[in-house]
Design a protein that fits this description.
- The structure is a single chain.
- The protein is an all-alpha fold.
- The protein contains 8 helices and no strands.
- It starts with a helix and ends with a helix.
Length: 147
């Protein structure tokens, strides 16, 4: 007969192989966060740029089935529960999509465009929009949020 320690090890191994253990951990973290989150606490105003960045991240998280991480992001940063329409993001960020890229998150396209500046799948229009937002502006916003 197996010992309790051996049963624990087999159970843990089985849950890890099925991916259930990580889901349980993620769900637990999300629930702990929700329990500790004070809905009356004022959050700093979300800049337009941060709002769009959060939406890109949320789309990426949901695409990759990181639903608990996405729920924590949404709650913590104050994004609306309902995601923005993808077409709105495309227009707002001046991204020109190719038909074969519509099935993946926009963040993949932004990264691909930055990594492959000569690749025309994601024209430079997307990076032109981001170039208006300089590093000094980002640093100033980060400092304001920290104080």
């Amino acid at each position: 007969m197996a010992t309790v320690t051996e049963l624990k090890a087999v159970l843990k191994d089985t849950l890890e192989k099925k991916g259930v253990l990580e889901q349980i951990k993620a769900k637990l973290r999300a629930e702990v966060f929700n329990a500790l989150d004070d809905p009356n606490e004022q959050r700093p105003a979300l800049s337009h740029e941060n709002f769009l960045i959060n939406e890109l991240i949320r789309e990426y998280l949901e695409f990759n089935k990181y639903k608990y991480t996405a729920s924590v992001l949404t709650a913590e940063c104050g994004q609306p529960e309902v995601p923005l329409d993808r077409e709105f993001l495309v227009k707002e960020l001046n991204i020109v999509e190719a038909p074969n890229t519509r099935s993946v998150p926009l963040l993949y396209g932004v990264i691909a465009q930055l990594l492959h500046a000569n690749d025309e799948k994601f024209p430079r229009a997307s990076s032109l929009q981001f170039s208006k937002w300089t590093l000094s502006k980002a640093a100033n916003q980060r400092n304001q949020m920290g104080s």
